[in-house]
Design brief:
The protein is α/β, with parallel strands linked by helices and 280 residues long. The protein folds into 2 domains: 12-243, Phosphoenolpyruvate-binding domains (TIM Barrel), CATH 3.20.20; 245-277, no CATH class. It has 11 helices and 8 strands. The chain has helices spanning 12-16, 30-39, 50-53, 65-78, 97-111, 123-134, 163-179, 191-200, 221-224, 242-258, 273-279, and strands spanning 22-26, 43-46, 83-87, 115-117, 139-144, 183-187, 205-208, 216-219. It has an 8-stranded parallel beta barrel with strand order 1-2-3-4-5-6-7-8, surrounded by 6 helices. The longest helix is centred in the middle third of the chain and has 17 residues, at 163-179. Bound molecules: 3-methyl-2-oxobutanoic acid. Residues 26, 45, 47-49, 87, 185, 187, 208, 218, 220 line the site of 3-methyl-2-oxobutanoic acid. The site of 3-methyl-2-oxobutanoic acid has 11 residues, from strand 6.
């Protein structure tokens, strides 16, 4: 692959005061990270959506810290010059601020994370944000739909349509800012509510299914590129059909092997005749 000229990693002050809408995409392995960096995205999220799109789990709640470390290391190696945010998986910060800090330190030391992200803005989560950011590790918050605890939210569905749920997202984002989060993901909430949160907070908001008024946007790699074929959710725009290309490519390979069309002479290695003769 031909890489674009190396771009300098954006600093935290540059991310907090972006000159243009921030572009974030998820990545889970070395090749995806190289693609994202070569495309010039501002941030890579090693999201715990890893569980759904890479590991085949039913829920992100099954993803472990070990899974996140393993994949974040590969992403770091593929994208050394891009700001990398890594999700704290379910079961780390729910155990309290000390466990959260320990997991965050591991993600920084062992995987090279520039920042970590956690979901929700309940008192425990706010305390975790305070503790981790006080230790010098930037934290991204996440309100609206919270996939790790979606069961408690009634499933993977749009949040913030009624006053209680809308207030939870708005007040959650404000509380995360107050606790020291440097940014917040707004997931699956009405566009007008995301615009209000963006106007009320000083930190950049990064939307996914949250309309155009956020300070940035994030999408899942597999959704943007059509790694899985078939219809996509409304909040996704598909920019390529990698799944279809991949299936077609593999079908052609299988057909060529079966028809003895592969490997061809140009795919094979030679040996001098006299060497071969001595073997007979
Ligand atoms: O894990 C993930 O991919 C996420 C995005 C949906 C923001 O948290």
């Amino acid at each position: 692959m031909t890489d674009a000229p190396a771009r300098k990693k954006l600093s935290l002050p540059q991310l907090i005061q972006p000159k243009a809408p921030l572009v974030m995409v998820t990545a889970y392995d070395h090749a995806q990270a190289r693609h994202a960096e070569a495309a010039g995205v501002d941030l890579i999220l090693v999201g715990d959506s890893l569980g759904n799109v890479v590991l085949g789990y039913e829920s992100t709640a099954q993803v472990t810290l070990g899974d996140m470390l393993h994949h974040a290391r590969a992403v770091r190696r593929g994208a050394p010059n891009t700001f990398m945010v890594v999700d704290l998986p379910f079961g780390t910060y729910q155990l309290g601020p000390q466990a959260a800090l320990q997991a965050a330190v591991q993600l920084v030391q062992e995987a090279g994370a520039d920042a970590v992200k956690l979901e929700g803005a309940a008192p425990n989560e706010l305390e975790c944000v305070r503790r981790i950011s006080a230790a010098g590790i930037p934290v991204m918050g996440h309100v609206g739909l919270l996939p790790q605890t979606a069961v408690a939210q009634g499933g993977l569905r749009v949040q913030g349509k009624d006053e209680t749920s809308a207030r939870r997202a708005l007040e959650g984002a404000l509380a995360l800012e107050e606790a020291g989060a440097f940014s917040a993901v707004l997931e699956a909430i009405p566009a007008a509510l995301a615009a209000l949160i963006t106007a009320r907070t000083q930190i950049p908001t990064i939307g996914i299914g949250a309309g155009p008024q956020c300070d940035g946007q994030v999408l899942v790699y597999h959704d943007v590129l059509g790694v899985y074929e078939g219809p996509v959710m409304k909040m996704v725009r598909r920019y390529a059909e990698v799944g279809q290309l991949s299936r077609e490519g593999l079908s052609s390979y299988a057909a060529d092997v079966r028809a003895r069309q592969f490997p061809a002479p140009e795919n094979s290695f030679g040996i001098a005749d006299e060497v071969l003769e001595r073997l007979y």
